[in-house]
Design brief:
The complex is a heterodimer. Chain A contains 11 helices and 9 strands. By secondary structure, chain A is α+β, with helices and mostly antiparallel strands. In chain A, the strands form 2 sheets. Chain A has a 7-stranded mixed beta sheet with strand order 1-4-5-9-8-7-6, with helices on both faces. A two-stranded antiparallel ribbon of chain A has the order 2-3. In chain A, a hairpin with a 5-residue loop joins strand 6 (248-252) and strand 7. Chain B is of the alpha+beta class. In chain B, helix 5 crosses helix 6. Chain B is elongated, with a radius of gyration of 39 Å. Classes of the chains: A alpha+beta, B alpha+beta. Chains A and B meet through helix 5, strand 1, strand 2, strand 4 and strand 5 of A and helix 2, helix 7, helix 10, helix 13 and helix 14 of B.
Chain lengths: 343, 750
C-alpha cells in the first residue's frame, strides 16, 4: 500500500474526480467496487487504522468515514445524472424516422362481392326480407318455363345459356330469377325475399362481359302490390346502397316474367352533368324490375287474383364495379392477389 | 334500330316537338332511345354553288379551273378534276375551313400553280354513297349559298332505339309503328296512308304452294314494266338517314317498305323463276344455295326455303338467292311478301350466323295481315314514281293464317290497383283510345279490341293492358307508396350466419384472402391432380375447350389460383366459400346433389431449416383448429385422414390430418399436404416450388354440429406451475397417445 492510498484527502479527491468522469452505470459500479468494496480503498484506510498510534486512530477513523460518505453521495448523484442523461438520449431518438412506411403485415380480407352482398343482405333483412339461396345448376323449368320463357325464346339460345349434358333438363342458371318460383313454392304469401348468387351466360368475355357474374333477385308478394310500391321499395334500396336519396325514373322494359316490366334508371350518383359512368346521360340503368307476371305466380302456386307482387334484379358485379371504380369485370373472379389485396 | 325524324313526320304531325322531346318521350313511354344525333351534319357546312364557267387548267389536261359563285362577296376559284363539271351547274361546295367525313379539312391550296379555294364534292366525298364518277350535280333551282341540307330539305335527326327493348313489339319495327306511338303519346292523329292494292290485271295468279307450316302466309304480286333507275332524292335521303345505302329504285323501295311498315319483302326477277311457280318447303339434307351476298350456304332439314319448283331461290325470311335477284334489265317482277314462324327463322339465321334486317323482324312474329298492306304500299309507291308499271296478274295468296285480332275485357279497378295511381276511368279510356284499342266501357269492365299488329305477341292478358295504360300515363306520375303489411318473421338462415363467421375468422383472424372462382373446372388442372375421371356435371357448350365441367370442390381452382399468385408473391393464403355439385347423388328431379364447402390453400416459400410447427401444414392446421374453436366445434386429437370416403385422391398419403369433432366424432374436414408428384404437376415447381397445404371443411357437416359455446371456468387460486415434459418414444407411437396419457395423468393429479 502506497502512501497516497493512505492519504484520505487525496483518495477522496481522486475518487470524486473519477466519479465525475464516469459516463456509464458500469463505470460507476467499477468505481464503487474500487473504493467502497470489501477490499476497496476505503476499506484499506479503515484496515490501516489499528496499526496507527493510538492518538491518531480517532482522527483517521473520522477522515475515512468522511471519505466514504462523500464518495457514496457523489456516486448516487452521478448515477441519477446518468439515468437522466440516458432518458434524454432516448427522447432525442437519434436515427428515428417517422416518415418510414410500416413493415408489411400479412393481410387477409373479404372479396368485394362478399362485402357488397352482405351490405345489401343486411339492408333487406332490416326490411323483413328473407334471404334465400338457389342452385347454380338449375332445372330448365325453373330457369325458363316457370318464368314464362317458352321453348323458342331467344334467351334460350345456346349462345346465351349453358346447357348441361345428359338428362337434358339442367342448365347453369342464367339469372337469379328461378329463385322467385322456388320462393313462392316454399313460402306462404305475404312474403319478401332476396336471393344473391352466381349466374352464367354463354358469352365471350371482355372488359365488360363475363360468362360468370353475380346478381341479387328480389321478390315481394302481398295483397294489391302496385307499381307505386315497387317505386317506393326501389328508392329505399338505392338510398341504402348510395347512402343518399337518389332520383329514379321508371321506363318500359321487357322481361317475360314481369308485366308490366320496367327498367329503373337512377340519377347518376357520380356526377351532375354527365360522366363516363352514365355515358353522359346523367342516368344509369340499374334495376330491371316489374310486377310479377300472373303466369309466374301460378307456376309458384299463388293465385294471381288474390295476390300480386313485384320482382327486381340487381347486378351485384356491376354494383361492385361502380362502387370501387373497377374497369374490368374479369378481375372479380381472377383470384389475382394484386386485385384482391386492394380491398 | 335507326328512326328518322323526317320519316316519322310523313306519318304524324311533329310540329312543335323537337327531336330531343321525341326521344325523351319515347324512352319514357315506349322503348329505350340509346342515342340521338343529327344526320350528316357536315351537309350544313357544304353550300350550294353555281359554276359560272369552267376553263381547262393551263398545266394539266384532266383538271379544270372553275369560277364558282357561293353567294359570297367574291367568286371562288376552284380547281376540279371531275369529268362532269360544267358551267351553269349547281354543285355542292366545301369552302375553306369545312370538315368532311373522315376528318378531312378543306384548305386553301395551289394545284399545279393555280390557287384553289374549296372543293366541288362528289356524293362519296360527302359520305352519301359510293358514287365517285363525278361531282354531285344538284337540281338547278336551288338557291346559291344556302347549306345543301337546307336547300334540299334533308336536315334530319336520327333516333337510335335499342333493339332489345322492341323484342315484344313486332309492330314497332317500322316508322309507322313508332309514329303510332308518337301519336298516342302526344295526342296527335296518325296521317292516313293508302295501302290498298292497286287495280290488278286479270291474268292467272303466279302459282304459289306452301308445303311447310312454318310459312303462315305467302303473297305474290306480279309487276311488269318496272325500270331500273336511281331513287328520287327524298327516298335516297330517308334511307341514308337510317343508315341504309341507296342502290337502285327497286331495292330501295323494298327496303323502304320494310323500314316503313316493318314488313320485309323481296323482289324476284319473275323471268328467271321457273313456270312451276313458288314452292315453300324445308331444305333437304345436304342441299346448298348461294345467297345474295355470294356465299354458298350448307342447309339442314330445319331451314325453310323458297324454291321455284325445285331450285332454292331464297332462304326464307333471311336472304334472297343470288341467281334470281333483280338486275339491271329486269322488267318483270314477283314481289314476295310473307310471314314465317319466328323460331324457324331464328334458328336458321343463328346457325348460319346470318342476321339480316329481315330475319330480325320475322323473329318477332309478324302480323299475317300486314303482307297485303305492304304489297299495296310497294305497288302504290312504285306507280307514283314510274306510272308506266302494271300489275298483270291476280294476287297469289297462300297460307293457312287467321287474323289474330281479338277482344279482351279488363277491369278498370284492377288497372288502378296494379298501378297504384290515382287515375280515373275516363283517363284510362282516353289512353286506350289513343292507343287505337277502341275501348268500350261497361261499369268496371272495359272491352278493348286488340288489332292484329299487336296481337301476335304483345297484348293478350289484363296485365298487358295495365302496362299500356301505365306507360302512357307515365310511371313517373305514380306516387310512391310505402310497403306495409303483415310479415312472417324472416328466415334465420343458419347457413348464411355460419358462412359469415367462417369468412370473418379466416379473413380477419387467419389473414387469408377470400377469393371467388369460376364454377367451371380447368380440365388440365383436373388431369394434373389425377381427378379428371370423377363424375362432374358438364355443360354442352363451354366458352372454351376444357372448361366445361362444374366443380365438386373449390380446391382445384384454388390451387391453380395459388400457383398463379406464387409467381408474384412470397406467401399466398387464399380461401373460398363455394358450392359443389355431385351428379352421382342426383335427386328425383335429376338435380345434382349440392354441397357447401369452405376450402383454403396456403403456399409458402420453401422452408429453410424450419422447425416443427412453422410449415404450411402446421399453420393451416392451426388456422383450422382456431376457426373450428371459434365456431364452437371442439376437436378430438388430430389423426390421419383415412383414404377414400370421397376425400381428394391428390392428398399426401401420410401428411393428411382429419379434423374430427369431439361431440359427434364425425370428420368435418381435413388439412393436408399434396401428394408430392401432384404438387409438382399443378405447377408448384421451379420458381413456384412451395411449402403447400390445403384445407377443406364441409359447411353442411358443420351445420349438423351442436356448437358448444364458451364456458367460464373459475380462475386458479394458486399460481400455476408449468411443467415441461419431454418424452422419448419410438416413431411408431403417435403423439396423440402420449398426449392422452399426460391428460389422464393430469386429471388424476387434480
Amino acid at each position: 500500500m502506497t502512501d497516497s492510498q493512505l492519504d484520505p484527502a487525496r483518495l477522496e479527491s481522486e475518487g470524486l474526480a473519477r466519479i465525475a468522469a464516469a459516463g456509464t452505470a458500469a463505470e460507476l459500479s467499477a468505481i464503487e467496487r474500487d473504493y467502497l468494496g470489501k477490499t476497496g480503498l476505503v476499506a484499506g484506510l479503515l484496515a490501516a487504522i489499528p496499526s496507527l498510534p493510538k492518538e491518531e486512530r480517532g482522527g483517521a477513523g473520522k477522515a475515512a468515514n468522511q471519505v466514504k460518505g462523500a464518495l457514496t453521495r457523489a456516486l448516487e448523484a452521478r448515477a441519477q445524472d446518468l439515468e437522466g442523461l440516458a432518458l434524454d438520449a432516448e427522447r432525442a431518438a437519434v436515427g428515428f424516422d417517422a416518415t418510414l412506411p410500416p413493415p408489411a403485415v400479412e393481410r387477409g380480407g373479404l372479396h368485394p362481392i362478399t362485402m357488397v352482398t352482405r351490405e345489401l343482405e343486411d339492408l333487406f333483412a332490416q326490411m323483413g326480407y328473407h334471404i334465400l339461396d338457389g342452385p347454380e345448376v338449375e332445372r330448365d323449368w325453373y330457369n325458363f318455363e316457370a318464368l314464362n320463357i317458352p321453348a323458342d325464346h331467344p334467351a334460350r339460345d345456346s349462345q346465351d345459356t349453358f346447357y348441361c349434358q345428359g338428362s337434358g333438363n339442367l342448365v347453369l342458371r342464367t339469372h337469379t330469377s328461378p329463385v322467385q318460383v322456388r320462393a313462392m313454392q316454399r313460402l306462404k304469401p305475404p312474403f319478401r325475399a332476396v336471393a344473391p348468387g352466381k349466374v352464367f351466360r354463354q358469352e365471350s368475355t371482355d372488359a365488360s362481359h363475363e360468362h360468370t357474374f353475380h346478381q341479387m333477385e328480389g321478390l315481394v308478394v302481398d295483397k294489391d302490390v302496385s307499381v307505386g310500391h315497387l317505386i317506393g321499395a326501389m328508392k329505399t334500396l338505392l338510398a341504402g346502397i348510395f347512402g343518399k336519396e337518389v332520383e329514379v325514373r321508371l321506363r318500359p322494359g321487357y322481361f317475360p316474367f314481369v308485366e308490366p316490366g320496367f327498367e329503373l334508371d337512377a340519377r347518376c350518383p357520380f356526377c351532375q352533368d354527365g360522366c363516363s359512368v352514365c355515358k353522359r346521360t346523367t342516368w344509369i340503368e340499374l334495376l330491371p324490375c316489374g310486377l310479377v307476371h300472373p303466369e309466374v305466380l301460378r307456376h309458384g302456386g299463388i293465385d294471381p287474383e288474390e295476390w300480386s307482387g313485384f320482382a327486381f334484379g340487381l347486378g351485384l358485379s356491376r354494383l361492385v364495379m361502380l362502387r370501387y371504380g373497377i374497369d374490368d369485370v374479369r378481375h372479380l373472379l381472377s383470384g389475382d392477389l394484386r386485385f384482391l389485396d386492394q380491398f | 334500330m335507326h328512326i328518322s325524324y323526317n320519316w316519322l313526320a310523313r306519318h304524324v304531325d311533329l310540329s312543335g316537338i323537337t327531336p330531343q322531346e321525341l326521344a325523351e318521350n319515347l324512352t319514357l313511354s315506349t322503348a329505350e332511345v340509346e342515342d340521338l344525333f343529327p344526320f350528316a351534319p357536315h351537309l350544313g357546312d357544304v353550300v350550294v354553288g353555281h359554276v359560272l364557267e369552267r376553263v381547262p387548267h393551263p398545266d394539266a389536261d384532266k383538271l379544270g379551273v372553275c369560277q364558282v359563285d357561293v353567294g359570297g362577296p367574291e367568286v371562288l376559284n376552284i380547281v376540279c378534276g371531275a369529268p362532269n363539271v360544267a358551267g351553269g351547274q349547281k354543285v355542292a361546295v366545301a369552302t375553306v375551313g369545312t370538315r368532311l367525313p373522315g376528318d378531312f379539312k378543306i384548305k386553301k391550296s395551289k394545284i399545279r400553280g393555280v390557287p384553289s379555294e374549296g372543293m366541288i364534292c362528289s356524293e362519296r366525298e360527302l359520305g352519301l354513297g359510293d358514287n365517285h364518277d363525278g361531282i354531285w350535280v344538284l337540281p338547278a333551282d336551288l338557291p346559291v349559298g344556302t347549306p345543301v341540307n337546307k336547300a334540299l330539305g334533308i336536315e334530319d335527326w336520327v333516333i337510335d332505339i335499342d333493339n332489345k327493348s322492341l323484342t315484344h313489339r313486332p309492330d314497332l319495327w317500322g316508322h309507322r309503328g313508332i309514329a303510332r306511338e308518337v301519336a298516342a303519346i302526344f295526342r296527335r292523329s296518325l296521317k292516313p296512308l293508302d295501302t290498298r292494292l292497286p287495280e290488278l290485271g286479270g291474268g292467272a295468279a303466279f302459282p304459289v304452294r306452301i308445303d311447310d307450316g312454318a310459312c303462315s302466309r305467302y303473297l305474290g304480286l306480279a309487276i311488269d314494266g318496272a325500270r331500273q333507275e336511281a331513287s328520287p332524292t327524298w327516298l335516297k335521303f330517308l334511307l341514308l338517314a337510317v343508315g341504309q345505302r341507296p342502290l337502285d329504285l327497286l331495292v330501295d323501295l323494298s327496303n323502304f317498305v320494310m323500314l316503313d311498315l316493318g314488313q320485309p319483302n323481296h323482289a324476284f326477277d319473275r323471268s328467271r323463276l321457273s313456270a312451276q311457280g313458288i314452292v315453300v318447303r324445308k331444305a333437304r339434307a345436304g342441299e346448298t344455295m348461294t345467297t345474295l351476298d355470294g356465299v354458298e350456304r350448307s342447309l339442314t332439314v330445319d331451314d325453310l326455303l323458297i324454291t321455284d319448283g325445285d331450285r332454292p331461290v331464297a332462304l326464307a325470311g333471311i336472304m334472297g338467292g343470288e341467281d334470281s335477284k333483280v338486275e339491271g334489265d329486269t322488267s318483270k317482277l314477283l314481289l314476295e311478301v310473307a310471314t314465317f314462324a319466328p323460331a324457324v327463322i331464328r334458328r336458321t339465321s343463328s346457325r348460319l350466323g346470318l342476321r339480316s334486317d329481315s330475319s330480325a323482324r320475322f323473329e318477332k312474329n309478324l302480323d299475317p295481315v300486314l303482307p297485303e298492306a305492304a304489297a299495296g304500299h310497294f305497288a302504290r309507291l312504285l306507280r307514283e314514281i314510274q306510272p308506266q308499271v302494271t300489275f298483270p296478274l291476280s294476287l297469289s295468296d297462300a297460307g293457312t293464317w287467321s287474323d289474330p285480332a281479338h277482344h279482351l275485357t279488363v277491369r278498370a279497378s284492377r288497372i288502378k290497383s296494379r298501378l297504384g295511381a290515382p287515375i280515373t276511368d275516363a283517363e284510362i279510356v282516353d289512353i286506350l283510345q289513343r292507343l287505337e284499342l277502341q275501348p268500350r266501357q261497361n261499369g268496371d269492365e272495359i272491352t278493348v279490341q286488340i288489332p292484329s299488329a299487336r296481337a301476335t305477341k304483345d297484348l293478350g292478358i289484363e296485365a298487358d293492358i295495365v302496362e299500356e295504360v301505365g306507360r302512357i300515363y307515365r310511371y313517373g306520375n305514380i306516387p310512391v307508396t310505402p310497403l306495409v303489411g303483415s310479415l312472417s318473421p324472416a328466415d334465420s338462415d343458419a347457413r348464411r350466419k355460419l358462412v359469415r363467421r367462417i369468412q370473418d375468422r379466416l379473413a380477419g383472424g387467419a389473414r387469408l384472402r377470400e377469393t371467388l372462382q369460376y364454377s367451371f373446372e380447368n380440365d388440365a388442372v383436373l388431369s394434373a391432380l389425377g381427378i379428371a375421371g370423377e363424375p362432374r356435371v358438364e355443360v354442352q357448350n363451354p366458352v372454351a375447350e376444357g372448361h366445361g365441367r362444374i366443380r365438386r370442390s373449390p380446391l382445384p381452382n384454388l390451387l391453380a389460383a395459388a400457383q398463379a399468385n406464387r409467381q408474384r408473391h412470397g406467401a399466398v393464403g387464399l380461401f373460398e366459400v363455394a358450392k359443389g355439385y355431385l351428379p352421382e347423388a342426383a335427386n328425383e328431379h335429376g338435380e345434382p346433389h349440392e354441397v357447401h364447402l369452405v376450402a383454403a390453400v396456403l403456399a409458402l416459400p420453401p422452408a429453410k431449416g424450419a422447425g416443427v410447427g412453422d410449415g404450411a401444414l402446421a399453420r393451416l392446421h392451426g388456422i383450422a383448429a382456431d376457426l373450428l374453436g371459434h365456431l364452437g366445434v371442439k376437436l378430438l386429437h388430430a389423426g390421419e385422414l383415412p383414404e377414400g370416403h370421397g376425400y381428394p385422391t391428390f392428398l399426401h398419403p401420410k401428411k393428411r390430418i382429419a379434423l374430427r369433432s369431439a361431440a359427434s366424432e364425425a370428420i368435418v374436414g381435413f388439412v393436408a399436404q399434396l401428394d408430392p408428384g401432384r404438387q409438382q404437376a399443378v405447377g408448384f415447381d421451379g420458381d413456384c416450388t412451395s411449402d403447400l397445404a390445403v384445407m377443406e371443411l364441409s359447411i353442411d357437416r358443420l351445420l349438423e354440429e351442436e356448437p358448444s359455446g364458451s364456458r367460464y371456468q373459475a380462475l386458479p387460486r394458486f399460481p400455476e406451475v408449468k411443467v415441461d415434459v419431454a418424452v422419448l418414444a419410438p416413431d411408431a407411437i403417435p403423439g396423440s397417445e402420449i398426449m392422452n396419457l399426460i391428460e389422464q395423468a393430469g386429471k388424476r393429479a387434480r
